[in-house]
């Protein structure tokens, strides 16, 4: 229980001569919500990429113990797959009716109609793509859930739905969220890290 | 159907008018030359074509030529894709194989046919020549497609631990199509023409190339034109089918 899922020690990341992450240290524990806060350009996405193991070009020590699922800020949906298939094909090894039902139910709670679920990424709005990307990360069985700006492009109602889901998830795994404005609900429930 | 689509009707009529124009030019040129051995009239070519059909040998020849070229083509496509996948992963292998690509691309088809003839004999020569025409084009285009693949989606595939078969189906193939389909069409045209040229040179039995060779040997110029017309028409049909297939695939993959 006291074993960390990610240990980051003295992480420093430079882009040329510019230091983007300066000596970042944190143990990310299981079943805990972390909110990485900061204005745009403060290195939130860079830090999340390092924590997810996608950027290995940094100095410091990083130990990741467990599987990560990531919601990318740029959505990153596969254009040849429908909205629902972008989740089914990525989040699960094999399709089966129970998983399809679970995916559709999650999408429904995120405001998708059955017609929207069949649409392709080029037919979806930015907010819809954002939610597909969120659902994909959410449904992938992982120890660490990393969400880069999950509240961007969402209305108040969906922000609240997603905040509740994130809080629920943080009871079962490490959840790391980056955001430039901390939702009220996170202020007491999350370990806030200011960049 | 054409009445409902005026643009299509206009296009069909103008294509027909162009065809009539060139047949008229051909007629006029044949009349001016006045020597069937050099330039037969369209009518005599049609008569020779009818003779070939009635003789029946044309069907076996077309079938056998198509089969040979298609074997070489499919093998060339497979080898080109596999080689590109390997060279994309290994810079060393790419360096080792790069001179081979340059040599294949720079060697004149005729030299290549003569050289290859010594090693594989008459029957397999068109297969090998078609193969060698296709391989470098598919290889280069597949490699270009692989290096142009979306790096962001590659990261998604990495994070979500996609197995290779799934990655191939949902990411690699759709990403490569816009590079590979034009290469498939171009290389088919080259494979077809080079394969027939190889048949002509090797006098490969039961082939379009042999029909062309014998027509030339016996100075049957209308028949030579008829065989050539068959090559052109088949080439157009194959290209049309590949373009149609390519469009369907691109639409299916939403490219």
Task: Give me a quick take on this structure.
The complex is a heterodimer of chains A (195) and B (255). Chain A has 195 residues and is α/β, with parallel strands linked by helices.
Q: Tell me which CATH architecture of chain A applies here.
A: 3-Layer(aba) Sandwich
Gyration radius of chain A, rounded:
17 Å
Name the largest protein-protein interface in this structure.
A-B, 21 and 18 residues
Oligomer: heterodimer
- Helix % of chain A is 25-40%
The level 1 CATH classification of chain B is Mainly Alpha
CATH architecture of chain B: Orthogonal Bundle
Description:
The complex is a heterodimer of chains A (195) and B (255). By secondary structure, chain A is an alpha/beta fold. Chain A has a single domain, classed as P-loop containing nucleotide triphosphate hydrolases (Rossmann fold), CATH 3.40.50.300. Helices cover 34% and strands 26% of the residues of chain A. Chain A contains seven helices and eight strands; from the N terminus they run E-E-E-H-E-E-H-H-H-H-E-H-E-H-E. In chain A, the strands form two sheets. Chain A has a five-stranded parallel sheet, sandwiched between helices. Chain A has a three-stranded antiparallel sheet with strand order 2-1-4, covered by helices on one side. In chain A, helix 6 (156-169) links the parallel strand 6 and strand 7 (174-179). In chain A, helix 2 packs parallel to helix 5 (126-139). The longest helix of chain A is centred in the C-terminal third of the chain and has 14 residues, at 126-139. Chain A is globular and about 50 Å long. Chain B is mainly alpha-helical and 255 residues long. Chain B has a single domain (54-252), classed as Orthogonal Bundle (MetI-like fold). Chain B has nine helices and no strands. Chain B has helices spanning 6-33, 42-55, 57-89, 91-106, 109-147, 151-159, 164-202, 208-217, 221-252. The longest helix of chain B has 39 residues, at 109-147. The model of chain B has no long low-confidence stretch (mean pLDDT 91). The chains are: A alpha/beta (195), B mainly alpha (255).
């Amino acid at each position: 229980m006291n074993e960390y899922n990610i240990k980051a020690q003295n992480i420093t990341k430079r882009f040329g001569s510019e230091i983007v992450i300066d000596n970042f240290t944190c143990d990310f524990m299981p079943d805990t919500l972390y909110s990485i806060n900061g204005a745009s350009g403060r290195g939130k996405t860079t830090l999340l990429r390092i924590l997810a193991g996608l950027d290995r070009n940094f100095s410091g020590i990083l130990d990741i113990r467990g599987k990560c699922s990531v919601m990318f800020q740029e959505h990153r949906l596969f254009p040849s797959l429908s909205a629902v298939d972008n989740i089914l094909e990525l989040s699960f090894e094999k399709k089966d009716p129970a998983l399809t039902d679970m995916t559709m139910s999650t999408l429904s709670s995120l405001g998708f109609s059955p017609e929207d679920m069949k649409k392709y990424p080029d037919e979806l709005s930015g907010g819809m793509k954002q939610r597909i990307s969120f659902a994909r990360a959410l449904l992938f069985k992982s120890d660490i859930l990393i969400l880069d700006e999950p509240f961007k492009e969402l209305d108040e109602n969906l922000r609240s739905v997603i905040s509740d889901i994130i809080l629920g998830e943080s009871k079962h795994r490490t959840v790391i969220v980056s955001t430039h404005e901390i939702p009220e609900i996170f202020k007491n429930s999350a370990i806030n890290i200011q960049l | 159907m054409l009445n409902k689509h005026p643009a299509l009707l206009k296009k069909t009529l103008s294509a027909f008018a162009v065809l009539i124009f060139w047949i008229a030019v051909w007629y006029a040129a044949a009349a001016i030359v006045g020597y069937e051995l050099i330039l037969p009239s369209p009518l005599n070519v049609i008569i020779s074509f009818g003779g070939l059909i009635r003789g029946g040998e044309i069907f076996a020849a077309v079938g056998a030529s198509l089969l040979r070229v298609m074997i070489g083509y499919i093998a060339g496509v497979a080898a080109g894709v596999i080689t590109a996948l390997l060279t994309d992963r290994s810079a060393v292998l790419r360096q080792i194989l790069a001179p081979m690509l340059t040599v294949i691309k720079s060697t004149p088809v005729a030299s290549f046919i003569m050289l290859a003839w010594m090693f594989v004999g008459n029957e397999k020569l068109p297969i090998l020549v078609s193969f060698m025409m296709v391989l470098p084009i598919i290889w280069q285009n597949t490699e270009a497609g692989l290096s142009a693949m979306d790096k962001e989606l590659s990261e998604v595939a990495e994070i979500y631990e996609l197995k290779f078969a799934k990655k191939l189906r949902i990411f690699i193939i759709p990403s490569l199509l816009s590079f590979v389909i034009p290469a498939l069409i171009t290389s088919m045209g080259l494979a077809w023409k080079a394969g027939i040229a190889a048949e002509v040179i090797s006098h490969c039995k039961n082939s379009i190339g042999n029909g062309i060779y014998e027509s030339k040997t016996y100075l049957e110029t209308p028949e030579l034109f008829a065989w050539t017309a068959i090559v052109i028409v088949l080439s157009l049909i194959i290209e049309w089918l590949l373009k149609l297939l390519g469009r369907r695939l691109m639409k299916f993959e939403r490219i």
